[in-house]
Fold each of these.
Amino acid sequence: MPSQVVASRIRGFISLNAHPAGCAANVDAEIAVALAGAPQAGLSDALVIGASTGYGLSSLVSAVFGYGARATAVCLERPPQGDKTASAGWYNLAAVQQRAQAAGREVAVVNGDAFSREVKQQTLAHLKSIGARLDLVVYSLAAPKRTDPATGTTYSSVLKPIGAPFHSKSVSLGNDQVTSVEIAPASEADVEATRKVMGGEDFVDWMRALGEAGLLARGCRAIAYSYVGPALTFPIYRSGTIGKAKEDLEAKTRELSDWMAERVGGSAYVGVMKGLVTQASAAIPVVPLYISLLYKVMKEAGTHEGTAQQITRLFRDHLAPGVRPTVDELGRIRLDDRELAPSIQAQVSARWDQVTTENLADLSDYASFRGDFRRLFGFEVPGVDYAAPVETDVPLKLV
């Protein structure tokens, strides 16, 4: 179709479109980070479930370009249609696939609901057809709903405190105002529904299906991503419905690791990551304000990492072939160590008490939060000419 000028259509924490050239530029920047200091060899086959944005995308890029993996990516993304752009994830994976092909590497893409039996079977069939033996499996899903394949029941996750209402500061992405929020407590049904969506069931289902199909290499490592966060966000996050789901993920991953050790001499981990700007985090009350303050403090301290830098550190220090992961007392790999450093959290807490709409720009890096959020969809990326028409019907080769 003819090229068109793509202007951003972002409303609060929702983007209605994406810019293909901006998304491709983001991918190029991630590839550059992944290549720096990496051996560009060491992994044979990798599977990334939830590979099109955020930590999943960075993991895919690191596995392929940093460690030479032949990779399969599972996603649920919207293709372009008429004058409507594709989703950012579609453009991200199209760019990864194009760059991989140019480098003589392979990235296959399965587009569909990763919770479904059909997509699992489609993925397994593809992996069998190419003779894959997976050295690495990354589970990075952040979907709001899941249909349990065993019962057909659809569950929706909720972000709520448990036991009592939650009152706190937040910042509105719609008008940039520091406001107060109140969130009613969850019911028992809310807690269970969130566990079904964001807990460990699906991760275990994937790994057992891969293992029973003979697709896991000897010594295979699997990792699912999680977040703990500071005391400031505990009532709405770690002590709330999502936190209960993450506790389930951690418990089931420890059991899964034992199963993998017995079956293929492998292991499974939960990676606890740093707070970053993602499509999911932008929708959580309190979190945008916290991350804006965190960014300011960590940049001043010289310890800030973006998504690509954090995943590069994860691979280098914990997941690279021959490297033994360092874990905490619960068996988790902690990449949030710099975020939760006492000196960092003390400064964030002090600024939290002081921050208002009037001093938001001085005390926080809210401008970067907004900019990073827009860049998730390919907008405000340095070096991209947004006045120039661009082809939006970008092909993505699917399995």
Amino acid sequence: MDEAIVKILICPHCGIELRQNGGSLVCSNGHTANIARQGYVSLLGRYSGTHTADSAEMIAARERFLATGHFSAVTDAINSELSKPGLEEVDGAIIDLGTGSGHYLAAALEAAPDRIGLGVDNSKFAARKAAKCHERAGAIVADIWDGIPVRTGAGAVIINVFSPRNGEEIDRILADGGRLIIVTPNPDHLKELIEPFGMIGVDPDKEARLEKSLGDSADGLESKAVEWKMELSPDEVVDLVGMGPSAGRLDQSKMDELLTGLTETTEVTGSVRLSVGTRDASLASEQEDEAEPDDR
């Protein structure tokens, strides 16, 4: 694992710095995490859970679908925020929470050639892909609800696309002046597929829940809608349904029946909300004042 990546990681058990020792990461208290041959490392804490982690099949479907470019509007919207003024003087990595295959992380690193990137996911299958998504990227398996094993203030940019958010931990790891970029689905997102394929719809109160989940991080967030149309083949529909939380909700016979009824291409709506905020210096000062010596 690249030394620059190791330097931003902390032990998930005691919160102190890690160092590489051969094929492992170790801390001074004797905790050890082995680096997998695929290049990622599992930094699950004592109370971490992975029962909701994406399967190998879901990650493979996501990798195939995102490679088609049908979600390029999302990638472009994220990268446009990286080019806006204000980040030039902020040191730190690009951290992708809920990174999946690392698709958005890799694109962001291309747009920010002077930064390293870290993909965080609770799926080892995701981390395997994300660890190799870009030469300046690393990946860890971690449960954001059990603390993110990343140094305080290590993130110049935090990306979160269609994934859960731990506002307290985002506050902690985002650097003073750093940029938070969140992508959430609007109610019209994939509306043509939701009912026939039994997909999970979008809660109309999702925006309010976003603010609640972020706490202080939601202060000053600016949001805009990003909308586009896609023409999907039947195989692309299968991957789109199978790459997210709706995967496995239909048995194969019902899926085959629905696919038989599709035309050569199906028009599908893409509709998301891009929410962007900058960490306020006053919040950073308060956090420093309140932090304990072993603050995670």
Amino acid sequence: MRNIKLTVAYEGTDFRGWQIQPGQPTIQGTLTEVVRQLTQDSVTLQGAGRTDAGVHAWGQAVSFKTQSGLAPEELQRGCNALLPPSIRVRHAEEVGPNFHARWDARAKTYTYSIYRGPVVPPFRWRYVLHVSQELDFAAMTQAARCFEGELDFTSFSASTGSEEDDRERTMVRTIFRSELIDLSSRAARAATAANAPAEFAGLPFGGQAFSEEWVFVIRGRSFLRYMVRKIAGTILHVGRGNIAASDIPGLLEKRDRRCSGPTAPPQGLCLQSIEYPDPTDSLQSASPGTRP
């Protein structure tokens, strides 16, 4: 039995999120059908992150086990020939038998894009939240930093829909980076740059649209449901003057979902990358470890 890892990008507008839902178009469902067709195996795809309806990805990681003899590059070509253009397999590789896309992830990076100009370019409207009103960038920058560290994010999460699951799961998450970036100056410099910063991979960095965009970048070990969108909505709440950045530590301490700002819409959110201790999970991997 071989273990395969895919790096997948998708435009999430027309999908009901990552996870399979009966009768609904989903990324996992669409990709599973194609992989099963290619491998002739009843494979189960494991994704590193369960993105919501309308959310995009550039670096989603997927793993599955198969008896197929297809080489990784053949799987990649086959997937991209059969998948809709809104889903692309960027890379395929064989990994060790113990690798699991979700449980082995050590960090995830998301971006949330806010378009600041009066008119959103037609090639960006699916990927940004349009906010043309005056916002306090300095206050929002300060607010973003308040989410760094090992914190209880109950106030910035949504219920799983099960009271029992809500009681049993831990709400503490570790955030390594939480930063709001003004791309107006970066866009001009990027016009001649060979590569965009890593957090903007897959986006048209250096294009005219970026001169009017702010991007919230957040990198953490793992995230709760709606957590990034609730944080982004709260940072916007600060920018509009509805609350102060200094209020955020108190909101975290309350552990009350009613305390956060509004949940930001999904289209501005993108899962940029997933990090692992060893991207290839060496084929000489040791015996299976304990999964969380």
